[in-house]
Amino acid sequence: MEYIEKLFYIAQDYWFLTMIVGLFSTFIESFLPVLPLVGIVTANAAILGLWVGLIISWIGSGLGTIAVFLIVSKFNNNKIFNRLRNDKTDKAINWIEKQGFRLLFIAYSCPFIPGCLVTLASAFCKRTSKSFIPAMLSGKFVMFLVVSYVASDIKGFITNPLKIAVFVLLVFLSWKIGSKVNVSLEKNNNSNNKIKDSKLYE
């Protein structure tokens, strides 16, 4: 996070450079999920304003996620990419194969669900670009809009109890949705295991 703050500080007097830094930061986060996406989106909105910051973050993150999805989809049989698969990824794959637009939209609009996991699972289960990209972009837009709205006017937001209440409610609902998705993943995985076990004894 420190290097991002330094880059933004240096670029404050250079509008175009600031946009490039903001775009690159959200793009590279798709490949390095350890970077704080919400923090980057917040910085973009605080420096560039609500709409410019929102669009820059959305384009950068969207392009990065599409790039990861296409790369993994192309080489998902490669040994290197197979190492990315684990229990969590397999659970997500099993569920995504049965769900459609709604699941992907919710997953990308909820900050409590790891977007990288959803991207990898979508690629591994060979979801088509036509079904993946619209849902992903729509979900990210909703999440980024909320984050950018708060970040673009932090002082006004803090002094307005109603805005704080709405934000807390959105965070709570987002957390509840994320929790339900995780529970559904567990249930789906358990049901699949039971089916496999029953077939073994047939």
Automatic annotation (TrEMBL):
Pfam families: VTT_dom
Annotated localization: Cell membrane
InterPro entries per UniProt: TMEM64, VTT_dom
Keyword Nucleotide-binding set for record: no
Gene Ontology CC terms, in alphabetical order: plasma membrane
UniProt keyword Metal-binding, yes or no: no
Keywords on record: Cell membrane, Membrane, Transmembrane, Transmembrane helix
Topology in membrane: Multi-pass membrane protein
Superkingdom of source: Bacteria
Positions of the VTT domain: 36-150
Spans traversing the lipid bilayer: 14-35, 47-72, 105-125, 132-151, 157-175
Family: Belongs to the TVP38/TMEM64 family.
Protein name in UniProt: TVP38/TMEM64 family membrane protein
Organism field: Romboutsia maritimum
Lineage: Bacteria, Bacillati, Bacillota, Clostridia, Peptostreptococcales
